[in-house]
Structures are given as structure tokens and as C-alpha cells.
Amino acid sequence: MLDENCVFCKIIRGEIPSVTVFEDEHVKAFLDISQTTPGHTLLVPKDHITDVFHLDSETAAKLFSYVPMLAQAILASNTAIKGMNIINNNGAVAYQSVHHVHIHLIPRYSAQDDFSIHFGDHTKMYDAAKLNAVADKIRTHVTEVPHA
User: How far apart are CA 22 and CA 121, in angstroms?
Assistant: First the structure.
């Protein structure tokens, strides 16, 4: 089911133009209009799903199964590519600007290619007991392990 107001749903329906890289009955992959780096591609499911928190394991398995193929195609398209960031943002605080689950495949050409991610190092704030307390809270909410 598609959302009539969602930008990505409009792209899927052909109401907004896009440059398609790959499409089948399940997904559409198209170039991000911002092109953070050349080849920046978005992968979206054809059903409107807001974010990973609303994604069932079957749809997730299907969606994420396309990532290696697309990453390999992007890599093969340009010998200057040295690496790739594969990112899924969920919620505004995590920089999700379009609320239709999507995966960014961002080719990396150098450490100075106008894209960065910062992981703060808070190692000194956590000992084994604190880490286990965090893990215990998460474990109490794990309800099932999906199997392929």
C-alpha cells in the first residue's frame, strides 16, 4: 500500500521523476537527488513502511537482500570508488527526512569527499557491569529470532 503524500511513494508511482537504477515488483532503487557523492543511490520497498521499527522480518529480508547486488553494481560502475557507506536512518533525530524506510548506498572516493560520520568514543563511561545492564534491558524485549 502506498501513501498519497509520501515523496518516495510518488516516485514509485511515477508522479515525481527519478533516475532509476533498478526496479522489480518489490523494490525501486534510484539516484538520490542530492548526490552526496556520485552514485549515491536510495533503495526503497514498494510498500509504504515508515521506518525499520515498522518493518516485518520478511519484508526486511527481502529489502536488505538487494543491498549486495546494488553495492557491487555501484562499485563496478566507477574505478575511483574506494569504499561505501550503507546507511538506514530511522526517525527525525537520526536524520530520517523522508518517512518511508530507505537505504542509502553512498560511494566513497576519498576521506575528503564531503561526507562524514562521527562515532563518539565513550569507552571510559562504560565498564562491564554498565554494558551488561544496557544489554539486559534490550534482551528483555527480544521476542523472537527471525529465521530465513
Answer: 38
Asked if residue 29 lies in contact with residue 11, where contact means CB atoms within 8 angstroms, the answer is no
Task: Name the catalytic one among 54, 102, 118, 122.
Answer: 102
* 44, 8 contact by CB (below 8 A): yes
Residue 102 annotated as catalytic: yes
CATH of 7-117, one of 1.10.150.20, 3.10.20.90, 3.30.428.10, 3.40.50.300: 3.30.428.10
In the chain, what are the domain boundaries?
7-117
Tens of pLDDT along 35-89?
999 999 999 999 999 999 999 999 999 999 999 999 999 999 999 999 999 999 9
Contact call for residues 41 and 87 (beta carbons, < 8 A): no
In angstroms, the CA 27 to CA 132 distance is: 38
